[in-house]
Amino acid sequence: MENENFYQKLKQEFPEFNTANLSDDTQKSLESLLSYTSGSLDTYRIKIAELKADVVHSELKKSELLAEVKVKFQKTLTNEFQHVQDRVAVAQQALDAATCEPEPKDSSAALLRHLEQREIRDNLSTMPLAKRTEHLINGAQGGDAAILRAIEAQPIVSDLMPLDVMNRANTMYVEKIAPQQTSELAVAAANLDGAAVIRNLTEVVLGHIEQAI
Fold this sequence. Notes:
By secondary structure, the protein is mainly alpha-helical.
C-alpha cells in the first residue's frame, strides 16, 4: 500500500486528521510515521473491543492491559518522531558545514582579519543607514560575506545595522552559497512540522477513543 493511502485512511477513519493538510511530498517523507500511526490506532481500537468483550479479567486488569498497549504505541510513536527530528539535525549540520568559514591559520592571519573587519566597519560608519544596508545586501546576494562578518564581529557597544536586516542578509548569503543544503533543511523542517501535527492529532484521537470506552 502506498504511503498516501495511509494518510487518506487516517482521514477517513479519524476525522481529526482532516485538519492535517499534509503536502504530497510530506506524506511521502513521513511514510513510516503515517503507516505506523494508522496500523497502531486500528490495533488500539481492536484491543479495546476485545477487552470490552473480556469476561475473564477484572476491570482493573483490563485497564492495565490497555495501558500496556498504549505505552508501547506512544513509545514507538516517539521513536518515529525522533527519526524526523534527527533528519533536521543532519540537514542543519550539512548547512553549517557548507557555510562555515575557515578559522585563521595563525595569529598573524587572525590579526589581519581583525584589521580588515575594523576597516570595513570604519567605512560603514561614515555612511547613512540606507547606504550601509545597500552594501550589506548586495554583498550577501553576491555570496560575499565580508561586510556581514565584519558587522557581526563589531564591539557590543556598536550598532551599525538593525538585527532584522542582519538576519535577512545572512539568509540571502546562505541561500546563495549553499542552495542545496538550504533547500534540504527547509524540506526537513517542513517534514518535522508535519510529523508534529500527526503526533499531536494522534494523541487527540487516543483520547477520543478512550472517552468512548
